[in-house]
Amino acid sequence: PGYRDWRLLDAAVGAFGAEGLEICLTVPELAEGPALTLWQGFINELVERYDGDASFGAADGQSFPDINENGTVNVVDWEQSTPAQREAWAAKHRVAWLEVGDEPHTAELAGTLGAAAYAKQLDAAHTAVAAANADMGVMLAGVAIEAQSKGDFTGRLASVKAEPPFDAANAHVLASTTDLTQTLSVGFVTRLAKWA
């Protein structure tokens, strides 16, 4: 709750959107317990803002986007902009993919993330996307696939309620920097495809 300054992210998303690129936002934080509630609130706002429709989820004027892109958010943006201007801003700032976290296995091994916590984050992201009726996919956090087993990977997803638990996966194939033939990399990606 409260004011969140979206201007920097709005500018970055808008710059990529203006080029016609499909955008994936990665929210790298991994949360559990009371922090998950705060994370869910942020994800709800983020999805509503960038889901491609002109509602933006802005509870107050200051959270409203800078529709006329003059560098300030004011009454001109939220009261005097036309539906066409709002829709144009929304289309330019549409996010296609939401990547949830980054390498949860590392946090699990360090003891900073419980075994079932990541599944709750995936469910929270799916809930936000469904509530906004967004045409946005949920992407599984980057996975360093050469550093974990199928059991680690599938166990992390076992308690996910959403079906399917994710729409896309992101594989970090670290061996590719030393494997000039890409044989190891192809093998690791093939292994990940079989896990999902």
Draw up the topology in text.
Layout: H1 7-18, E1 24-27, H2 34-49, H3 75-78, H4 83-92, E2 97-102, H5 104-110, H6 117-131, E3 137-144, H7 150-157, E4 171-172, H8 183-195
Parallel strand pairs: 1-2, 2-3, 3-4
Quick rundown:
The chain is α/β, with parallel strands linked by helices and 196 residues long.
* Largest beta-sheet characterization: 4 strands, parallel
Number of helices: 8
Order of helices and strands: HEHHHEHHEHEH
Alpha carbon gyration radius: 19 Å
Tell me the total number of β-strands: 4
Shape verdict:
elongated
Report how far the terminal alpha carbons are from each other: 36 Å
Uncertain regions: pLDDT < 50 for 5+ in a row? none
> How would you classify the helix and strand content by structural class?
alpha/beta
Task: Please indicate the percent range of residues in DSSP E strands (runs of 2 or more).
Answer: 5-15%
Strand order across the largest sheet: 1-2-3-4
Which percent bin holds the helix content? 40-55%
Mean pLDDT: 85
